[in-house]
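Handoff note, outgoing to incoming analyst
You'll be picking up this chain. Sequence as last confirmed:
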Amino acid sequence: MAVIGGGPGGLAAAVAARERGAERVLVIERAEELGGILQQCIHNGFGLEALGRDLPGPAYAQHFVNRAHETGVQTLLDTMVLEITPQRRIYATNSRQGVIELCAGAVVFGMGCRERTRGALAIPGTRPAGVFTAGTAQRLVNIEGYMPGRRFVILGSGDIGMIMARRLTLEGARVERVLEIMPYLSGLKRNWVQCLQDFHIPLQLSRTVLEIRGTQRVEAVVSVAVDDRMLPIAGTEETIPCDTLLLSVGLIPENELSRRVGIALDPLTAGPIVDEGMGTSVPGFYAAGNVVHVYDLVDWVTLAGEVAGRSAADYIAGRVRPAVHRLRTCAGENVRYVVPQWLDPESLALGAQQLQLRVRRPVEEKVKVVVTADGVEIAHKTERYVRPGEMVTVKLAPELCESLRSAQELQVSVLKP
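Most recent structure output, in case you need it:
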């Protein structure tokens, strides 16, 4: 089995596959060390769900690096995958071996995601130095030991942006404010409290950057309020002096290799369409973690990786039973998307299955999450609130197996009681 990517999803998949009986598991990682983005996430909060421990990112990564070594997972570091064929033939390259050709019994994609850049936003203005994505700034500060600026404006209330607002403040920089184009928070509320409120960093909702000013270096940004159609409101412009603009405006699952293989992608998640075992539309290919959709917590990336790794090991061993019937999951009222997109009713006979979803708009009061099969309610749960920045999970009990065998579609809706 080959795992593309040595981050939390890929490592979890590799370890789970070995523990499931896969004889040879190889992790191919383009960086010089395993662990992925966790190596630069030096704040705490990792491992509470997966390990029952509160760890910083590097310690959480090291736990799974150690497990990979202990279980006999092989690695190819500093190696870039160039191409993969539908027959699972892998072409990669590194400075030591040149071009490498491998053939795998199964492949798990664990490439993670990338940040949206200024080019994706098309922000008007000059092109000075001092515009960074939040993740790039995080690496510069936490790994390279380099401060990219002294006076910051952060566009977007994503988790990385809010965490960097706190980190930069602790390093002596001044964060003028965090701007968010939506009328609600994009990241987790706990990060808003711990990273912004606790450090008196202002958050302005329904505002964005209208223009970047500066010649050689950023000198200021012009912020503006937006209406409900995200259009600038004349007369609300404000010039904010700063020397650095950080962008925390969303993550995109990294799926260039998936496209080349011909794997079907979901236009809403930008990740592969998967079943309950994280299997894709091409046999023998599985996907783990943020390459499928962007998770709130790394713990959930790990748990999804374990599912993908076990499924891939079963595929290699010939233990995968062809699905006689699959249900399509779809988004109902106030639901943006549901993962997995396909569900085999027979999988419920092996244990409860969970659906994960994101809502379209926040509701700051009690709501009911309802799952229907061909219009008939089969499961529900109550949530105190729902927010687009916080994933919702609903479980389907094993006893539903029989009733779902003749159904055609599962729909998940978020309703007010």
